[in-house]
Amino acid sequence: MTYKTVLVHVDNGKYCPARLRVAVHLARRFDAHLVGLHAMTAVRLPAYAIAEAGAMLIEAQKEVALAQARGAENLFRKATEGAGMASVEWRVSADDAVDATTLHARYADVVVLGQSREGDGAGVETDFPEQVVLAAGRPVLVVPYAGNFEGVGKRVLVAWDAGREATRALTDAIPLLREAEQVHVVAFNPEGTAHGAVPGADIGLYLARHGVRVEVGYHRADDIDVGNQLLSRVADLGIDLIVMGAYGHSRLRELVMGGATRTVLQSMTAPVLLSH
Predict the structure, then answer these.
(1) What angle, 0 to 180 degrees and rounded to 10, lies between the N-to-C axes of helices 226-237 and 259-267?
(2) What's the average model confidence in pLDDT over 12-17?
(3) How many CB atoms lie within 10 A of CB 191?
(4) pLDDT of 42 strictly over 70
(5) In angstroms, how far apart are the furthest CA atoms of the chain?
(6) Is 219 helix (H, G, I), strand (E, B) or coil?
(7) How would residue 263 be classed by pLDDT, with cut points 50, 70 and 90?
(8) Could you give the angle at which helices 128-136 and 97-105 cross, rounded to 10 degrees?
(9) What's the rounded Cα separation, in Å, for the pair 158 and 233?
(10) pLDDT tens digits, one per residue of 179-229
């Protein structure tokens, strides 16, 4: 198993260049085809505005969309040509950002997105990464808006709870884990029989059979939520990649994420690879 197609969402936000550097590094590392996708959150105008402005408003929207797409493509071309990459592809979709990214993710091995932040000029909703993670069926690497992470994946922390989502994330991350200098598998406040006699021991053996250099352990602090325990361990161990399952669901128009997932996505200090 390896990554042969990497999909990166490209916008005109001020944090996009850092995300592109991560995507380029990942594609070069695995000799993968890199796809840049530009898609924005659809702007739904009220009926009265359309009735009053009509064709002029629609034409103005099209011009803005074309300018945004050209700006995003220039960023993508600059990043890939500067890295000497040959196997690249540029795509633009008029569909809503979540729908477009979810669709194109079906044909990629891993998706690279940026952590959302109000006022970053990205043109997507603040819950864009969460929506894609829950819908795409592919691992999603979310890059923090602050920091430099070109060498992502040297020291990895896997958040392990022996659940379905964590299993999916860990398996999706195996190409990265194999090349890591050190992988820490940590169970936070382990409970129940799913962990076995020693929390993390069985999954540690599984990873060792895949050639992963792994250490296992567990961390208990019942008075601290799991998300903050995880972020604390990231700081203590000098982690540059977190691997974890994404817990959540969409209920009508409300996105309900699990507590640990929400905490990490809001306060991440290292890239996070999530699978649902």
Answers:
(1) 40
(2) 91
(3) 11
(4) no
(5) 69
(6) strand
(7) very high
(8) 40
(9) 11
(10) 999 999 999 878 766 777 778 889 999 999 999 999 998 888 777 888 999
* DSSP label of 125: -
DSSP 3-state of 4: coil
The length of the chain, given as a count of residues: 276
Helix, strand or coil for residue 129? helix
Question: What are 71-103's pLDDT values in tens digits?
Answer: 999 999 999 998 888 899 999 999 999 999 999
- With H, G, I as helix, E, B as strand and everything else as coil, classify residue 271: coil
Token representation of residue 166? 């964590």
Which domains, and CATH codes, for the chain?
A: 5-143 (3.40.50.620), 155-271 (3.40.50.620)
Residue 227: closest CA among 190, 188, 170: 188
Residues 196, 163: contact at Cβ < 8 Å? Answer: no
Quote the DSSP letter at residue 21. Answer: H
